[in-house]
Design brief:
heterodimer, A: 274 residues, mainly alpha, two-stranded antiparallel ribbon, 72% helix, B: 293 residues, 0% strand
Chain lengths: 274, 293
């Protein structure tokens, strides 16, 4: 029995190492610590410093602070929109006593699986005709539309598993929809909604194709800047790139750490049929 | 309309107002446009039948891209599901720090696809990466980056995709694995079930619907792969890692051939929707079976 537990622990440790070593390697490089693999045996050189960060942010990418603000703005706007629309829609679907719902809900997941590249060319044309190209609203709406069906699927999974008796009783007492949602539904699944919002925020923050195609001078998010930076900086060194990578990753790591307790409850599950 | 129907419509309205103009309409517009001579610059679009499809299917680049993406998606998604399942299985029994491990599984996925391409471009650079560091210690000569080697670039791109997504699959599968009643594991142990039996009989059956859902998301992501390859290989060496996603982007926004770009995009959409139709059918079967029991 001990052997088996040890084998399990060793396997887990190996998998975790494989998952996290590339990140650790990058963090070290961003601090100026890089290996010299040509030496035999390989050695490490460099002393820890934050020079790469001041160089990346100050010199190589002077617009970094603006891009950070744009990324936060677009991702927040899109996430709030997604959660608001998806929560109402998922609640409607979950309390809809109709057989068609068994097709509509998995279809939402399919719609949410549709990659942006499948429709980005006509999307760019649609947004241009609406006069929303290179605006926060245009980019935010397009990003939100891409993620909303997935959020409907996730939130429907939580809502469909809630017992409806309390809601029915409140309705008989004459409570309206807003008060039922506010007093019964949200208190029950509020943490799950916030966990879903965190996951959607990560997707929005990392979204690339929509801001690349629909944004330009005004709306330049971090992934777009990262792609340009990598494509056009011929002399880009690994420590500089590593500092840029860590800078773009850090806000999400902080978010995930802060939302740790909520995320432990995150589930991607369709309603358990009763 | 009766009261409940009216209420449902009102609840669904904001979602419809968001998704129809910015997702459904562009997809439908792309489908219609693929049968016409429409481009944003042309005022009078004409019906051209299958001309756009003939043009794209006779482009060797697109044929190679389609083959690449099928290999990328089939092997990548299979590996991600198997590894993710294995991670969740390993985390099944409680231990100190399991919650921390579960949250750490999210970290590779937090790296955006664009950043992931940059990250691995450097990590696979011989003089500075961890793989060649290990090779150096093993006394092996350091080799060139697999991303530039013919025959290795696509497998390397697949492995990198698996690195980013398999831990996420583990994160998503774990709660369902933990929801399996304790008695089932105990019964299996009493009956002397081996590992393969425990997986096949106890763990897998209740997880199939979830694995199908995760598989659907991964397939959509795989068939549309674009941003991670843009910074990782740019489609190279040669055309070895070009995909329909990269092809559509380059045609529409670099070569300015709107028709080919939109048609390539629509073919990606069609492939996802075909798999999606099979997925919806499969979930209905599960719902029906569950009600029958």
């Amino acid at each position: 029995m001990h052997m088996r537990i040890n084998a399990r622990a060793a396997l887990l440790a190996a998998l975790l190492l494989a998952a996290l070593l590339p990140i650790v390697w990058t963090v070290l490089a961003s601090l100026g610590i890089v290996p010299d693999n040509a030496a035999s045996p390989p050695t490490w050189r460099g002393a820890a410093s934050l020079d790469e960060y001041t160089d990346t942010i100050g010199v190589a990418e002077p617009r970094f602070v603006g891009e950070l603000a744009t990324s936060v703005g677009v991702a927040l706007f899109a996430t709030l929109l997604v959660i608001a629309c998806a929560f109402l829609g998922a609640y409607g679907l979950a309390r809809w006593r109709w057989r068609g719902a068994t097709v509509v809900v998995p279809s939402m997941l399919v719609l949410g699986s549709l990659p942006v590249v499948a429709y980005v060319v006509p999307l760019a044309e649609t947004v241009r005709r609406l006069g929303l190209t290179d605006t926060l609203v245009g980019v935010g709406l397009a990003q939100a539309a891409g993620a909303a069906p997935l959020a409907v699927y996730i939130l429907h999974g939580y809502l469909a598993n809630l017992p409806v008796e309390l809601e029915d009783a409140a309705r008989l007492d004459g409570a309206g929809l807003p008060s039922i949602v506010g007093r019964i539904v949200l208190p029950a699944i509020g943490p799950a909604v916030v966990a879903t919002a965190v996951v959607i925020f990560v997707l929005q923050w990392n979204s690339f194709l929509v801001p690349l195609v629909l944004g330009s001078e005004n709306i330049r998010t971090i992934p777009v800047a990262m792609s340009d930076f990598f494509t056009f900086e011929r002399e880009l060194t690994w420590p500089t790139a590593a500092a840029a990578l860590v800078s773009s990753l850090l806000p999400l790591v902080v978010l995930i750490a802060a939302a740790n307790t909520l995320l432990q409850r995150f589930r991607l599950a369709e309603a358990d049929p009763v | 309309m009766t009261g409940p129907a009216l209420r449902t419509s009102a609840l669904l309205a904001p979602l419809v107002v968001l998704v129809v103009p910015f997702l459904v309409w562009p997809a439908v517009f792309g489908l219609v446009a693929s049968f016409t001579s429409y481009t944003p610059l042309e005022t009078r679009a004409q019906f051209v039948g299958l001309d756009n499809y003939a043009a794209i299917l006779s482009d060797p680049q697109f044929v190679i891209a389609s083959r690449n993406v099928l290999v990328f998606t089939a092997t990548g998604v299979a590996a991600e599901l198997v590894l993710g399942f294995a991670i969740a299985y390993l985390l099944r029994q409680p231990f100190q720090g399991r919650a921390l491990v579960r949250i750490a599984l999210l970290v590779p996925w937090l790296v955006s696809p664009v950043a992931n391409g940059v990250l691995w471009h450097f990590l696979l650079t011989p003089s500075i990466g961890p793989l060649d560091y290990a090779r150096g210690w093993a006394g092996l000569p350091i080799g060139p980056s697999p991303l530039g080697v013919s025959g290795l670039a696509l497998p390397a791109a697949i492995a990198i995709d698996v690195w980013r997504k398999a831990p996420l699959v583990g994160f998503l599968v774990l709660p369902a694995m933990l929801a399996i009643p304790r008695e089932r594991w105990e019964t299996a142990t009493l009956e002397g079930a081996r590992l393969a039996d425990r997986v096949r009989v106890v763990a897998l059956p209740p997880l199939v619907p979830l694995l199908l859902t995760i598989g659907m998301l991964l397939v959509g992501d795989g068939l549309g792969v674009f941003d991670s390859l843009l910074t990782l290989t740019g489609g190279g060496p040669g055309s070895e890692t070009i995909t329909p996603g990269l092809y559509a982007y380059q045609q529409a926004f670099r070569v300015n051939d709107w028709r080919l770009g939109a048609t390539a995009g629509w073919l990606v959409a069609a492939s996802v929707l075909v798999i999606g139709a099979a997925y919806v059918r499969a979930t209905r079967v599960f719902v029906r079976d569950a009600y029958a029991h």
